[in-house]
């Protein structure tokens, strides 16, 4: 039995890139990231509708300081496991002919992948329904969870009660209400982001792409070279103010999903700020070497992220046979 607060999932799962991001995870997280990537590939064999692609990624490096970070990463023992290769611009363009902009090198990660974030969950539900053991009940908010020797019961806001052997509550970014009642304070923060979607590009972007600012945000790149980068190469003011990087992935319909900002201090602004979008458009056009198609959607979203940088997911047993899971946002 699957109970969903909304009529359809509307949170970070559908508002983010759909990237399966092996390249950026720390050495401690790498085994989990690789397993996640392989699980998505396995799911795709059963549910092709999730749109899984083994597309890889390029982090495009535009300064010598950024190249130095990539060179340091390439010298590490896990570079082959991640599928890393540092390529000069001509080799980058042979793999991804849409990248006709200005950059010194590209750090390729063959293990990175993508799914279609807005259609993956409906596709998986359709598959699960075929076994006769799965039911999806939408538009129901869980108000209470009770345990007894007979099992677990869940009461929803329409007065219905559902019973089972165990409950897994996926709290998402809803840290109040029942989640707080079950857990009290827990080491997870909320992060607000802004993103956008363009019309069809008109050509294939064969990999996901990231800019050099992404080196600052992913733990895989930490080290002396990144320390030197942070000390000598300041971010563009808008990027620094909004804690930005550029990530870009092409959807199956041809449009580009591009982002993103990071806002950590609550209460969050409710406005969508235009300055970050101007920065993203400028940066993307410089890397592609062409004008972007028109932007057709802009949006904001909020995800949950563990405050311990070495913890990907927060998982806690709140009562017998009752688990609460949240906090994997922003790790790909």
Describe the structure.
- By secondary structure, the protein is α+β, with helices and mostly antiparallel strands.
- The protein is 27% helix and 28% strand.
- It has a single domain, classed as D-Amino Acid Oxidase, subunit A, domain 2 (D-Amino Acid Oxidase, Chain A, domain 2, 2-Layer Sandwich).
- Helix 3 packs antiparallel against helix 8.
- The two termini are 27 Å apart.
* Radius of gyration, taken over Cα atoms and rounded to an integer in Å: 21 Å
Total individual domains: 1
* Topology pattern, helix = H, strand = E: EHEHEHHEHEEHEEEEEHEEHHEEHEEE
Largest sheet: 8 strands, mixed
Shape: globular
Q: In percent terms, what proportion of residues is strand?
A: 25-35%
In the CATH scheme, the class would be: Alpha Beta
What is the CATH architecture assignment?
2-Layer Sandwich
Family: Belongs to the DadA oxidoreductase family.
Cofactor: FAD
Keywords: Flavoprotein, Oxidoreductase
Protein name: FAD dependent oxidoreductase family protein
Concise overview:
The protein has helices spanning 12-15, 30-46, 64-74, 79-82, 89-95, 120-129, 177-183, 224-232, 237-241, 274-288, and strands at residues 2-4, 19-20, 57-61, 84-87, 105-109, 113-114, 136-138, 142-148, 151-156, 161-164, 167-170, 188-200, 208-211, 247-250, 255-259, 295-306, 314-319, 322-326. It is of the alpha+beta class and 332 residues long. The chain has a single domain (2-120, 187-306), classed as D-Amino Acid Oxidase, subunit A, domain 2 (D-Amino Acid Oxidase, Chain A, domain 2, 2-Layer Sandwich), CATH 3.30.9.
């Amino acid at each position: 039995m699957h109970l969903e607060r909304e009529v359809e999932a509307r949170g970070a799962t559908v508002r983010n890139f759909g990237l399966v991001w092996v390249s950026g995870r720390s050495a401690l997280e790498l085994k989990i990231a690789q397993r996640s990537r392989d699980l998505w590939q396995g799911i795709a064999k059963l549910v092709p509708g999730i749109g899984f692609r083994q597309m890889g990624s390029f982090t495009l490096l535009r300064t010598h300081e950024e190249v130095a970070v990539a060179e340091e990463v390439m010298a590490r023992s896990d570079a082959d496991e991640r599928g890393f290769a540092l390529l000069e611009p001509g080799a980058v363009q042979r793999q991804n002919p849409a990248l006709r902009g200005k950059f010194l090198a590209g750090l390729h990660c063959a293990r990175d992948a993508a799914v279609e974030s807005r259609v993956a969950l409906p596709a998986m539900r359709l598959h699960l329904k075929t076994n006769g053991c799965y039911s999806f009940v939408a538009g129901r908010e869980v108000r209470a969870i009770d345990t007894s020797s007979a099992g677990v019961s869940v009461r929803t806001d329409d007065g219905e009660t559902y019973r089972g052997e165990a409950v897994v509550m996926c709290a998402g970014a809803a840290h109040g209400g029942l989640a707080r009642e079950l857990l009290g304070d827990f080491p997870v923060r909320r992060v607000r982001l802004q993103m956008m979607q363009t019309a069809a590009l008109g050509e294939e972007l064969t990999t996901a792409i990231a800019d050099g600012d992404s080196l600052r945000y992913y733990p895989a790149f930490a080290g002396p070279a990144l320390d030197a980068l942070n000390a000598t190469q300041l971010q563009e003011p808008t990027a620094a103010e909004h804690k930005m990087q550029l990530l870009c992935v092409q959807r199956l319909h041809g449009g580009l999903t591009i982002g993103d900002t990071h806002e950590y201090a609550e209460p969050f602004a409710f406005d969508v700020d235009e300055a970050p979008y101007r920065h993203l458009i400028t940066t993307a056009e410089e890397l592609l070497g062409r004008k972007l198609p028109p932007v057709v959607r802009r949006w904001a979203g909020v995800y949950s992220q563990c405050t311990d940088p070495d913890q990907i997911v927060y998982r806690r047993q709140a009562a017998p046979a009752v688990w609460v899971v949240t906090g994997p946002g922003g790790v790909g």
